[in-house]
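Example 458, ligand thymidine-5'-diphosphate.
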Amino acid sequence: MAKAPRTTYVCQSCGGVTPRWVGRCPSCNEWNTLVEETDAGPPPGSGVTRQTRGRVVNLETLDARGEAPPRMPTGIAELDRVAGGGIVPGSALLIGGEPGIGKSTLLLQLCASLAKAGHRTLYFSGEEAAAQVRLRAERLGLSKSPVLLASETNLSNILATLGDDKRADLVVIDSIQTLWADMLDAAPGTVSQVRAATGSLIRYAKQSGAALLLVGHVTKDGQIAGPKVIEHMVDTVLSFEGDRGHPFRILRAVKNRFGATDEIGVFEMAQQGLREVSNPSELFLGDRDANAPGAAVFAGVEGTRPLLVEIQALVAPSALGTPRRAVVGWDANRLSMVLAVLDARCGVSLAQHDVYLNIAGGLKITEPAADLAAAAALLSSLSGSVLPADHVYFGEISLSGAVRAAGHMTTRLKEAQKLGFKRAVLPAAGEIEAGGAKITLQRLSHLKELAEQIGPCQ
Ligand code: TYD
Ligand code: MG
């Protein structure tokens, strides 16, 4: 006798299951995340089957075929760089990003580029009608490219289309949250639906050798919506970031089974779609006002790539009991730390001042080596003295006030030299390749030396 379907409540944040509804998920303590779902047998892709007897599988050695996986170069160098040198056939890639950031635009450009190179590319749009996608293609000047397009949200229909005799090289699903499997009694976008759809599509990709590209929505705090399990299922997770007020977009690898995760790709959103930016430093320093106090150029590195950006600080006497601290593009905790070190180790107190820190161009910096540049910007704003326009700064500050070595020192210096900077303020420790860069070096061992040099008036 068939079992009656059981009703369970599934947390949309962590995937936890409870037998009855509660306001707060017992597994992850998130509020209002439980959604009613009917459990009608194991969902496809969950790995649970009714079969008990398995078949014998082939066992292989680790060095059986030592070649690197074959790659499909996309023709978009910035994307190739992030993916680790091209898209791997048979792999699944998830790309997340805020609405309106340009995911659909990037993927349409990718499809067109691969289609032009002779690959069979299929674009399934669950969010937009075919006419809307066509309009975008027209705007991008890609209406003539041989991309195959469908507006579809039903998983079975998509799998049936993919299962026809012709092999696809790239399949784009925009987005995974709009798909629904009709065998499941849950709304599109719920954990079971997203998991089932991802599972079935990945199975298709692995069997057919087509590369699968999924678009994922993000929640308000930047996580890809749905449980972490989706991120575990795919081979690569990319995040497409940027500030909608700025044209720059950064593509970042969050997870990559086929390459490094610290590379970034830089794009600019223009009238005709996304344009690759191969010299990001020039762009980020483009409209800087070098004559204002409170601006310091940070010589950063993202992955293996140098990136020069301006860090802007504004320090103003506070009228509030608890002065304001506001940070855009950097970690607020690191700012607090730099302020505390300036106070305790260098005698520069900002306790009566409001402090604002901004990374120009809408970029987000996570490197600890930005500490020294942030400190220079703060000291400059406090003292009102303009930092020389041809200086760059980098180095991590420890709680004792010591300036610690940063990675890739030579790369940073070479980039600064290339862009016409004359002097670098950097840590005393750390190796620099001989003949690496012809730029004057000022090496610091303690933050106090910088505070004395910039000379804040107290
Ligand atoms: P879109 O790719 O639809 O974003 P997503 O799929 O991530 O939601 O891009 C939407 C934004 O990009 C839209 O606000 C307009 C802008 N845009 C341009 O500036 N130039 C262009 O050529 C295109 C196609 C879009
Ligand atoms: Mg879109």
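Summary: The chain has eleven helices and 21 strands.
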